[in-house]
Structures are given as C-alpha cells and as structure tokens.
Fold this protein.
Amino acid sequence: MLQKQDTPGALANFPYDRMTVERFRKAFPRARWRDERRSWFVPGKTAARRVDRWLAREAELLAIHGDSKGRDAFAFDPISSPYLEIAEDLRIRTPYSMTVLRELRKIPWASWDDELRAWRVPFRSYEELRRRWPTIEEAARRSEPEERKRRREAESDSEAQRTRRLRYAERRRHRYPLPSEDSPPMGRPVATEQYGVVVFTDVSGELVEPSVLAAFYPHARRTDIDYAWGTWRSATLTELIRTWPARREAGEMERSRGWWQPTLTELRVARRNARVVERRRRNRDLSPTS
C-alpha cells in the first residue's frame, strides 16, 4: 500500500517478513522506517513508481513461492475426486449448487473461467481448498441429477411433501384470514405475513375455523377477535410503484392481525417479482404459438 507525502517520496507498507525486509533494504538503501506511520519512507520524486514496481515483483515472487508450497502440499495430501482436475492449476467442475459457489468464493484467488466452464484455483490456495473440500464435494454430490431425483421420489410421499401440497392448494384459493373489525383498505397493496404484498378485493362474512388458522396461518393466534375470509390478488407493478412505503417495520400487533403498510424493502421485492411476471406474460403474448 502506497501513500504520497508532501516531501518528495512515498510510504510503503507490506507484511513483515525478515527476508522481505532485507530485499527491500537492498532495493532501496535510502529508505527509512517511519515509526509514527508504521511504514517505510522512500525518498525521491520517482519513489512511488519504483516502489510500485518492486511490490509487483514481490507479489509475483510470493505467488510463485505459494504455488510451489501448494504443489508440495497436494503431493503429500492429494484430493481425489471426479470434480477436481489437475493442470497448471486446480480446476473444479460440479453441478450447480449455491453451497459450492459460496465456498469457492471464499477461497483466495479462485475465479470462474467461462471458456473452460470451471472454477480455477491456484496451488497457493490449496490449503484453503483442502479445508473446504468436504463441504464442496458433499454439496456437489447432492446436486447430481440422479441424487436430486432420488430425493424427490423419497420425499414425494413424505409428511413434508403432503404439507407443501396442502399449503399450495390453500394459496390457490386466494383467501386470507382478516380481523373482522380491522380489515385492510380494499384495492390498495398491503403486506401480509403469508403471501407478501397483495391487494384485497373483498371481505366475506364467513368466519375462519380455528383448525384452518392453526394449520396454515399461525400468525392469526389472537383469541379475542374473530377472523373472516378476505379475497386477494397479486398487486400489479403499476400499483406497487404508486404505493407509498411505511417509515418503519411492522410491529407485533400489526403482524398478529396479518396485514400492514409495506416498507420500502418489501416493496422492492414485490416490484422485482412483478416485473418478472409481466415480462413472462409479455413474452408469452408475443410467442408465435400463443
């Protein structure tokens, strides 16, 4: 890291290492340590440019040294995996997985090569890759098409899958429990606990059974009020853009009643989803087969 001074010269910072300091003093014999800055001061009008070149060469030497150590570490404790290819660096190809991406992004100098369709990791990062490899490999295996299919088949008759199907069927009814004495404004976007930002179009006089509330709407747990069914639809992008956001997040009382004025963050999410829906609808309308 370089910092210019008022006097001709530049400050140079780098991690302490005895051999590195010796090389620096040999390259810049006029350099002096500035204790108050915890930096080396190199005098001269061209100091910044000369130190920049020296730091670049040092970085290259460190990379070469790190790659050499990484190759030795790989030879001593190699990774054997169908997801790893050894070339001038380490190349990783896996099925798509957010876990794999998250782990690889944490590895220093790891980068995606679009032409090779693989992640490239230099040998200097081998120790970090070795530490993260069990998580990467396990996530890759779970993302294999056959493994995904096996899990889907195993879950198809599970209790969790049955619950998801029931929740999906309930959502398709486009109904929502609302306090009979505290209904939202009709025709205006409001945020809900279950379905995001929606527009209510009607409130019927039909009371909601407690068993339905417990199964699908756990937020509606107040026993001192009655809940009636409200009919909702998705908010349009135009409606969402015109909606003025709330200045604060919903409190416990607002969440327990099930609806509130959406915040800017909630509106941004709803607007993004609405844009996707409108784009899909527009593409479908323009399709020759439509």
The two ends are 60 Å apart (CA to CA). The longest strand covers residues 196-207.
